[in-house]
Hints:
The protein is of the alpha/beta class. The protein is 36% helix and 24% strand. The strands form 2 sheets. The chain has a 6-stranded mixed β-sheet, sandwiched between helices.
Amino acid sequence: MKGAAMSSTTMHGTAVTVNELAIAHSRSGARVVQGVTFSLKRGRALGIVGESGSGKTLTCRAILGILPRAFEVADGWVTLNGRNIATFTRKDWNAVRGRTISAVFQDPASYLNPAIRVGKQIEEIFTAQQLLPRREAKQRVLQLFEALQLRDPDYVFQQYRHELSGGMLQRVLIAAAIAQDPQVLIADEATTALDVTVQAEILDLLLDLKQRTALALLVVSHDLAVVAQLCDEVLVMKAGVVVEQGPVDQILRRPQHAYTQLLVSEHSSFGLERFMTAPSAELDHVP
């Protein structure tokens, strides 16, 4: 990441700032993400939408400092709580991941060890990171499970990955992500593989976390209804470039860019309007 002068007057409550971020292939130098700029405050949610390959997940991985080896940050900068992540050492990242910033991804089963009971995996966060005794760590896990509306937390604690449903696994993964009370949570297609009922429950949980803990939520999704329910602002990406961004109601009700208009038009048949919050005229659609 190229060095850039950081202002010492970071906006109060701003958890993440991304400025003119560009991501390129490590060998060819070809840019796959270009000019992404936004800020995210505590207690607010920003949605990033766009088709597969638009650069949504790469942008989030850059913020997390976990870009695949084939890619690198070519320009711009990212700050967490005012600190430029380009200056982070491995020790710095170990200190902020889980505590300052965390993430929940699609396909929770792939992030859990099939040979270890799921409760033990979350317990390890408390014993290894916070040095809690195992008995106290287990109680913290059970409290998390209960808060995330997992029925019979003791039962879930003892189960292996393959013994739980997709919705239960996603709740377990959210428990792992919020165990250390992070200020920022990235939800990357976190509800995509779930059925409609379970998806709604997970969205309610994320919304509750945002409101109750002043969590800064970054939501990556191809589903505009998800963004409409969770987010205050939205950023629309196509081919690695932000084509439109602004308040959710403004962008989804009166999109200006042709690509955003197409996305809204495609989603309107699925009842997007019922997820909108502000009263207004009907959504503008592509003819």
